[in-house]
Structures are given as C-alpha cells and as structure tokens.
Amino acid sequence: ERSSISVGQLFDEVLSLNRNKLKNKNIEVVRHYSAKTIVSARTGEIRQVLGNLVGNALDALEVNGKLQLRAKPTECSGRPVIQFVVADNGSGMSREHQAKIFEPFFTTKKDVGTGLGLWVVKKIMDSEGGCVQIRSKLGSGTVTRLCWPMRPEHNADQIAEEDQRALAATFPA
Question: What is the C-alpha separation between 101 and 116, in angstroms, rounded?
C-alpha cells in the first residue's frame, strides 16, 4: 500500500540500519535535501532501494570516506519526479563491471552479498516507472541517481489503476 513519507525520514531509517558501518569506518555523511520533501511510495520498496544503494556505498568506502545523500523534486522526461542521489568516494567500478551491475547474482564483493541488490533496485524502479543510472570511476567512487515518479496523492483511483496495470504486466494471465 502506498503512503507518503518524508525523504528525511527515509534516509534517517536507512542510516540507522547502517549505523555500525558508519561508526566503524568513521564515514562522513553529507545531506543535501529538505526534510519537507515528500515521496509517495510503497515504503518497504523505497526503503529497500535506498538501503541497497547506501549499503553498497558503505561497502565500497574506506575508513574516513564520504557518503553524500541528495533528494529534490525535479523533472525527468517531462514528468515530475523526486531525484535521489547516493554518492561515495569509494573504490568505484571498472567499465566491465558497470556493464553487468544489474544482472542477477553479479557481484564485485569478495565475501559478502548475493549479487541481487542492484538487480532488485532495477526491478523496483522499473515497476514504479522510474529510472536508475549509475556512474562510477575505478578508484574515485560511484554516483547513483534515481528518478522516483511523483504521484498525485488526491487521485487514489488512478494510482490503483496504474498499480493493477503494472501487476498485470509483471504477471500476465
């Protein structure tokens, strides 16, 4: 079920889940968003998306690294969206790895992870009608940009109809 949640609350919850990594690596978190920015979403899904991205960034960061979190209302292809950015100054990825990051079970991590995190992010973003873009440079870090579509809060019938179409497309009869 969809609900409205502030971007600040979402990021705070994700950071809280990762507080041990943040503390152990002494990560500086730089926030660029207004707590008044509201997103309409299935909260479990958007938490999973942001949690996967922040978790990946923290895994890539060395001690005393920097994590940047941004969110702002904007437009993407003429549609209103909330643009989220998760950026780190960590290890980055090669072009070869970047070409495979949305494939299931692909991972650059040696001893952790299943290789499903970014695949799940892509599936959720596709089902929402949004997009995800990742830019990375080996040795310099990674920037992930999400465009989460804004939905008119007042038109619950239209949202339910869109959700039914998306469900039908995912699981055809």
Answer: 9
List pLDDT tens digits, range 11-66: 999 999 999 999 999 999 999 999 899 999 999 999 999 999 999 999 999 999 99
Distance of alpha carbon 7 from alpha carbon 12, whole angstroms: 8
- Give 5's strand partners: 39
The Cα angle at residue 45 between residues 148 and 95, in degrees rounded to 5 = 65
φ, ψ of residue 106 to 5 degrees: the values are -85, 130
Instruction: Say how many C-beta atoms besides its own lie within 10 A of residue 132's C-beta.
Output: 20
SS3 54: helix
- What's this model's pTM, rounded to 2 decimal places? 0.84
User: Nearest 5 degrees, angle CA 60-CA 64-CA 66?
Assistant: 60
- Both structure tokens of 54: 């922040």
Distances (CA, A) of 159 to 21, 43, 47, 150, 165: 37, 15, 20, 11, 10
Task: Confirm if 125 and 131 have CB atoms less than 8 A apart.
Answer: yes
Per residue in 93-135, pLDDT tens?
999 999 999 999 888 877 777 889 999 999 999 999 999 999 9
As a whole number of angstroms, the distance between CA 31 and CA 115 comes to 27
- Which helix (H) or strand (E) is 58 found in, with range? helix 43-60
